[in-house]
Specification:
It is a single chain. This protein folds into 2 domains: 93 residues, Orthogonal Bundle (DNA polymerase, domain 1); 178 residues, Intergrase catalytic core (hpI Integrase, Chain A). 56% of the residues lie in helices and 4% in strands. The protein contains 13 helices and 3 strands. It has a 3-stranded antiparallel sheet with strand order 1-2-3, with no helix packed on it. It starts with 5 loop residues before the first helix and ends in a 5-residue tail after the last helix. Forms a cyclic heterotetrameric complex composed of two molecules of XerC and two molecules of XerD. Belongs to the 'phage' integrase family. XerD subfamily. This is Tyrosine recombinase XerD. It is found in: Cytoplasm.
Amino acid sequence: MTGSSIEHLVGAYIDHLIVERGAAANTVASYRRDLLRYQGFLADRGLTDLRDVGEDAVRDFLVALRRGDPDNDVVPLADSSVARTLIAARGFHKFAAAEGAVVDDVAHAVRPPKPARRLPKSLPVDDVLAILQAASVSEGPRALRDRALLELLYSCGARISEAVGLDVDDIDVEHRAVVLRGKGGKERIVPVGRPALAALDAYLVRGRPALVKKGTPALFLNVRGGRLSRQSAWQVLVDTAERAGVDKDVSPHTLRHSFATHLLDGGADVRVVQELLGHSSVTTTQVYTLVTVNTMREVYATAHPRAK
């Protein structure tokens, strides 16, 4: 490729995305917008030839995206938008180097910001109890199934896929435990509380026999007698939370997060919670400790005479 002007190379890269990569129209529009912003940033610094652009200029662009420009009413971008814009610039530099327009890919070492660590959403104990209570109001096979499902999800912190994947034989009533099959087919044995066992017993005795239509080992069944799907189990929780008056966003993972957070709040060791959740690394579980630390800070701020 001849020519190393930034404007020319931006046009060539956009054509490459369309013709060679077959990028979707929205993707092309996003890249064009981000690269025009990058081109304008470089032009403001007197850089119109890509051979004159070094790694420092790319890093300055990253800083400018995150800082904004209050004097010109340019607001800082969120980390996700910064990452998207920088990825476009990095792709552009990589393309220019591959085409021989420049010698080196000077953007290679400039990394987009890591997304902010999101704390797991958990519910207060009272909200969880309200949901479980709402599930126990009605009788009938489906109501018994729904209560058993929700009690189990909270009692052992199961993923929704693990819960609907259970077979009847996975419940060990004698030892008050359940066998869960997690990611990668890894099995773990998790204790189950008495309320969940009682709900499971009621479902197995009075609910499941009315739902089963063929010899299936599945524990939780739909109205056709087949295994309950993840989507249907999700809807069970959403509908029950609505009846309970819990107006927060609730998902099966919310109960899993609540299970972990409530255990840690109660003094459980993080490594024990790791095993119960089926996490391969304790660092994955430690994100829940951030929730409990925030709780401790709130208590300290309101209760300690020297906190303020």
